[in-house]
Amino acid sequence: MNEVLITLFGSISQYWYDKNYMKYFLDKAKGKPVRLKVTSYGGDVAEAVAISNLLAEHGDVTVEFIGFNASAATWMAFGAKRIEMHADGMWLAHKCSVGVDIYGSLNADQLDDKIKELQSSKQSAEAIDLMIAKKYADRSGKTVKDVLSLMKESKWIAADEVKEWGFVDEIIPGINKRAKVTDELTNCFNAMGLPLPVIEEAKPDSTPSMVDQIVAGIKDFFKPKENPITNKIVTTMRKEFISVNQVLNVEGLEENEGKITLTVDQLKAINDAIRSAKDGQTTAENSLKAVVDDLDSLSDQVKAAADNKAKVQVIRNVINKVPGTQTSTKQESTEVNKYADIATDPINHYENE
Predict the structure, then answer these.
(1) Do 302 and 296 contact (CB within 8 A), yes or no?
(2) Structure pTM?
(3) 34-39 and 4-9 as β-strands: parallel, antiparallel, unpaired?
(4) Do the beta carbons of residue 80 and residue 55 sit within 8 Å?
(5) What does the domain layout of the chain look like in residue ranges?
(6) 237 and 253 in contact (C-beta within 8 Å)?
(7) Who wins on pLDDT, 299 or 137?
């Protein structure tokens, strides 16, 4: 099922993005997964609390932070089922601000009244700060004291640090990132009984292939290990190398003084597994090339795209221009445009945040 897209690009307040705006679109998406894209410097605490509760009430909302996000916008997302943040985004947690209006000349009695008023405002601000800090602490598992210290610093922090604090679930990488070992790839290797490759940081002109990594892993397995405790021959049944044991169809391998002896049939089994992996890699690479060639043949614009993801986007842009091909998500975006009187945020007013 496609996610319903809702955007919140601007100040959170009763005049811009408020609880009524969010409730309208969440009600329309009832029973469907929602992706709420947010870039906001925050705003009204009361509106943010209400929006957070509405997200929790819907139950299936993913908040995607893009750009810079601060203040009420950050913890507003805690009502969502999942929170993601782009790698190039920034995050700011700080103490709340209250309006102070002092103008003109005041006598002693008036000054005393103003001092009492400011003391009351200070107590209110401290109560709000404590509420916000508890939200951060409940989400992250950190102490309220630690969170209040972070809020007092009032500094922008990068996405990786935000994740370390436990405020988001996942960092969305930028383009040109190395491939990750996905669950699908893990399942394929486990089914074949092969060691899982470890993708390390890329080195210029020296990126090992997947097969090379498998071979390196097997070589490392058979390296002799020193026994610093005794010079006596100690036989140990090694069962922890599950992938190798699966290839050889054994429960474990006997190790003597850090060495393991294999039969010719066992070596043949390992050799066949590596060859199968290499053939599979070659087939996958050829299939991918064939698909890319077919895409490039569609138009020069597709062929000139920077990478495969860009090629797909070029094709998607063309399809979206064809009448009658809009997805439900695209149609939802049209509905958002119809609600432009409250959805538009031409100027961020967050000085009273």
Answers:
(1) yes
(2) 0.49
(3) parallel
(4) yes
(5) 4-177+329-343, 183-306
(6) yes
(7) 137
